[in-house]
Q: What sequence folds into this?
């Protein structure tokens, strides 16, 4: 990825020996290689959990392990491993589906510092300004996304935060030092408990102006 970003930067700076189609093909192959690596690791994890479950069943047939506390402990481990295996099998299926999609260049994953290498690898290391209107999607509608958002390390994460909260934090990450963020968004974070972390994050920024329309339909 580092080599690819270097080539894309030189391309945007006008190096004639580099062609956009070649760079796209290289980017596509890199993502396929990454997915292949993740798929193999996931397959090994599924096999390991399968062996653990099978061995646990065999041990349950041994004297002393089929009854009492030994049985209870064995069943607890087996339940945990089966749950882990199901999660890993789901993850493996998603990875395999992603690999199939990457055969189309239009489906290459979007990575900010690759797509905008001239911005993030240059002197600024970020955008001058980010303007947006984050989607108004309530937290009840993003249940499947919550584990992903939490795993990505958002400091504003809470289990009850609406989706627009994370757009604020991501937008700030994309700005250069001294960059400007301009959003039209819900004002619920002013008073909602889930907005406490976002309020703390914004309080550490230089705020030029906030226009609150209250309950007016905007």
A:
């Amino acid at each position: 990825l580092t080599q690819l970003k270097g080539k894309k930067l030189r391309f945007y700076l006008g190096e004639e020996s580099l062609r956009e189609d070649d760079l796209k093909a290289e980017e596509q192959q890199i993502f396929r290689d990454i997915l292949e690596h993740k798929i193999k690791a996931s397959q090994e994890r599924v096999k390991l959990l399968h062996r653990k479950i099978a061995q646990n069943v065999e041990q349950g047939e041994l004297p002393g392990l089929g009854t009492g506390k030994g049985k209870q402990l064995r069943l607890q481990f087996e339940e945990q491993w089966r749950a882990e295996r199901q999660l890993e099998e789901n993850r493996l299926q998603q990875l395999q589906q992603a690999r199939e999609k990457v055969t189309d260049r239009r489906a290459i994953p979007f990575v900010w510092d690759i797509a905008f290498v001239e911005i993030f690898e240059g002197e600024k290391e970020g955008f001058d300004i980010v303007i947006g209107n984050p989607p108004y999607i309530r937290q009840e509608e993003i249940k499947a996304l919550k584990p992903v958002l939490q795993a990505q390390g958002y400091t504003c994460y809470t289990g009850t935060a609406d989706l627009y909260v994370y757009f604020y934090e991501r937008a700030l990450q994309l700005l250069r030092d001294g960059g400007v963020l301009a959003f039209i968004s819900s004002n619920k974070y002013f008073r909602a408990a889930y907005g406490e972390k976002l309020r703390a994050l914004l309080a550490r920024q230089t705020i030029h102006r906030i226009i609150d329309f209250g309950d007016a339909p905007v």
